[in-house]
Amino acid sequence: MDIDKKYFSNITKRERAIFEGAISMGALFHQFVGTPVNKNTKKGLEKSMEDSLRLQPAIEDVDVKIRFDKLEESMTEFDYTSLNGDMLDVKIYTKVDNVKTTIRIEFVEELNYPLMYVENITED
């Protein structure tokens, strides 16, 4: 079956590259927010998030950073906290044919909000 022809012929390669990154970012956010984390498990959680998203269609790479400053602010007396959107700084790199995108989430201080957005689009 030609998946591109059957399901994606109504959108451009550019739109598909954005779509793939955006749905993966939404999945990451809603799957991992609430996960228990501390300074000792931070790196492992970052790697797990990256490895799971790399399995998705059109994802070339993923860079997950859990902001240590935000993690420290949220620590409890039990030496852990729950991951929240304020802690995430994530870039998802997609490629569909000659179109590459970077989809990002980062905490924007001026908005006091973890914003998801299209950071970059290139076409070869």
Taking pLDDT < 50 over at least 5 consecutive residues as the criterion, the unreliable ranges are none
Evaluate the radius of gyration.
16 Å
Please tally the β strands and state the result.
6
Counting H and I runs of at least 4 residues, what is the number of helices? 4
What is the first-to-last residue Cα distance? 27 Å
- What are the secondary-structure elements, in order, as H or E? HHEHEHEEEE
Average pLDDT score: 96
Structural class: alpha+beta
What would you call the shape? Answer: elongated
Could you state the oligomeric state of the chains shown? single chain
- Please give the order of strands in the largest beta sheet: 2-4-5-6
Helix content range of the residues, please? Answer: 25-40%
Strand percentage lies at 25-35%
> Strand count, sense and closure of the main sheet?
4 strands, antiparallel
Describe the structure.
The chain has helices at residues 3-7, 13-32, 42-53, 68-74, and strands spanning 36-37, 59-66, 81-82, 88-96, 99-108, 113-123. With 124 residues, it is of the alpha+beta class. The chain has a 4-stranded antiparallel beta sheet. The protein has a two-stranded antiparallel ribbon with strand order 1-3. The longest helix has 20 residues, at 13-32. It is elongated.
